[in-house]
Batch of 4 targets.
Target 1
Amino acid sequence: MTGYRYSVYTRAARLALIEKAVAYDYHEHDPFAPGAQGAHPFGRVPVLHHTGARFYETAAITAYVDLAFPGPALMPERPAAVARAVQVISIVDAYAYWPLVRQVYSHAVFRPAMGEPASQQSLREGMERAPAVLAALDEIAAEGLVLSGPVTRADCHLAPMIAAFVQAPEGADLLRRYPALAAWWQDMAGRDSLHLTETPLP
């Protein structure tokens, strides 16, 4: 697999591989480096190569990992639970990534650590948008079909976003207001797969 150490989507794919107990080779690729040319046609990460085929887009990669390899199933069996897992993945991509990661985490944590300029306006906007996202996810966690038991692809996709978000003190404080989601994160954060995929900032 090719990925970027600071990419939450790379981490999501790696979580799926680890939770599925799949051994893999990892190759680092910074898609933001000048002149970077990777295997992804749109210049993104991660990319998974297996049996001569190339898979990109994280949801496609985690789906392939779950179906192509033996090991614990990363999707539930009940139709309603499957739908909820897919719903969480869609929420992550469409509504969670930008405010939680690109606005709050990036401007409160990542950019300052990298010596890059941060925008307080972007941080404020992310914090304003985050409650709607967390409330929707908290409702799903409280329902108990996913985000409440065995690890699924939904957990793999969501965990890197929350891991980034709570590194900002504002994010950690806000998460505590959503008890079901906070309880899920407390359990998820203790898993070996999360520790094995941690990348400390400089």
Note: The CA atoms of residues 16 and 90 lie 17 Å apart.
Target 2
Amino acid sequence: MRPTLDAVTRDAREVGGAWRTHQRHELPPVPADLAPWVERFWAVTWDYAEPYRQLVVPTPNVHLTFRSGRATVTGIATTHQHRTLEGRGSVLGVAFRPGWFRPLLGRAVSTLTDTTVDAADVLHRDVPDVRHADALAGFLRSVLPAPDPRSALAADAVAAVATDPGLTTVRDLAAHLSLSTRHVQRLFAEYVGAGPKWVIRLHRLREVTERLDAGAQVRWAALADELGYADQAHLTRDFRAMFGESPTRYAQRY
């Protein structure tokens, strides 16, 4: 019988926050003039004597990253991924606010979903080897086009999902925005890169991770009902699909 993921012995470097001894995460401030476009700048450095399999969980953002002299654009990943970190290295990136990469891309953001491409192919220009936040800000100022009002609408829609736990269906979100469900679905495909149902599921499941990170006692059946799930089994299944492991195994990371 094949062992389940939770039965497999795990890397001690990912348990109890031990990864923090090998990695440093920074969030450089975003200049005010870029705030409509950018959710965050981020930088990670690492030092591993042996290769480490890093879990990367989904977010509703398009990322522009600079690593080892290569610039790439990564669309929304609709499920968890893994990256291998080894030796010493670093990466600098920008997470665009949901909806705000669309004017820069010039086409539906859903065309980038679950893909990583060279930034030069997306931006249609040479991309410098950016290594610090000030240079990143300067580069963005040189390439950003005029704002698109629908980008703001898409960002507001995702923000509503993130901040209102009562929004558990696309119909709820459409009513909140005073739009039809079809309009919301088209908006998300064109500007966000994933459907509204997926974004709602992601944020409701992130509420689970926040409670686990805080060490809170979780009454799973009650939480499943609160988040709009038929039962605990459906909640656990969706959590595993999104984050790569069960809630209890995920909690061991912190």
Note: The first strand starts at residue 23 and ends at 26.
Target 3
Amino acid sequence: MIKLAITDDHPLVIDGLLNALNDVPDIVITGTYNNGASLLSGLQEILPDVLLLDLQLPDKKGTELVPILLQQYPHLHILILSGIESSPYIREMMQKGCKGYLLKSNTDKVVLTGAIREVYNGGIYLEASLKEQLLHEMLIVKRKIDKLSPRITRREREVLNLIMKELTNQEIADKLFISLRTVETHRYNLLQKLDARNTAGLLRIAREMGLE
């Protein structure tokens, strides 16, 4: 028997999910919650196997809540049910440890129960449209990397790796035995080549492109 908890701040969504799942023989609902605080409190009483989680809760966003949940309950299988169809957001939630991602707009009973069973059994669930979207994005990133890689010199890559380790310009200069001015030049060139406006953008783009 799969113990399932549901968290969503819209009563109609919860009612719809309960109606869809109430006659499924291998799934039992252990609790429903409408915000992050009630969820964290409720899980102390009854811990489910799978948590169906909306990301846009009134008191805590999913990006905040998921790390807290998995730190306290590392064996909890989190399945996101959201209206957000953003590839970077989906990728971020999966990287944080979620086991699946469903779109509210495309979810029917068969898809929902299949996803719950998949993550309960240790799998990863992404519906076909999301897989295609993420694959398309990965191919675009790969083309950018293939086009860009020859333009980034070995020394620029060394500087980039040290920037990603949060070293200052002076620390990078000392470590690579080069001048501070040379480090600043490499940093400027990296910003130009990766089309980044600042260091935060440089780090984000570099990670997205797998240049770590």
Note: The CA atoms of residues 30 and 47 lie 8 Å apart.
Target 4
Amino acid sequence: MNKISIICGENLITSRQALSLKIRNAQQKKIEVVNLDGTKVSLEQIRSATGSSSMFGNDKLIVVENLLTSQKSQRKEKITEYLFKKEFNNEIILWEGKNVDRRTIPNGLKIETFELDKQLFKFLDSIKPNNPLKPLTILKELEKTEAPELVFFMLTRQIRQLILAKEDLYKGAPWQGAKLKAQAGLFMPDYLEKIYQELQQIDYNQKTGNDALNLLSHLDIFVASL
């Protein structure tokens, strides 16, 4: 039986929580946890990690991050072929910060997908200058179901993507780029850069503890001031 499972999806908060829970459970059972960067790891490193027991002779939990969604390469192809065609004694978790193409995954592997709330995308699409009512209304609904850290992360990413699209530097799907460019065109020149810097400052203050307001309050104030 193949002991590989996949945790994926764009909801990074909940997918990370799921991974952290599995790691904690393994550590409580005195199972050694090996973390590997799937964007850089070599086939030799994978073979070494999966083919040997832990230094104490116990089972191991091997976590490989962002292998399946990394750029196409011979390295990636050889590693996935090795993982998907071989049987392992140790448990292997492939964690991906995006959705994976299920057509590339062999049948029988357990896949846990953590999707973003559709309301979150509506919120991001509603971000426009001098129009706070709609995004504030959606934000109030999101606050009931989503972590403020996730909403803040996605909002910051959206503003960054709007800046790239406005400058014709967005590298994603053409339809998405056109949509972002249209949204970015609603903002005055340099305004997107200004509010992006505001978000960066909020993030810094939150992480350093130099902030009298919580993240939820900052989200409300930021959206209301657009």
Note: Residues 148-166 form the longest helix (19 residues).
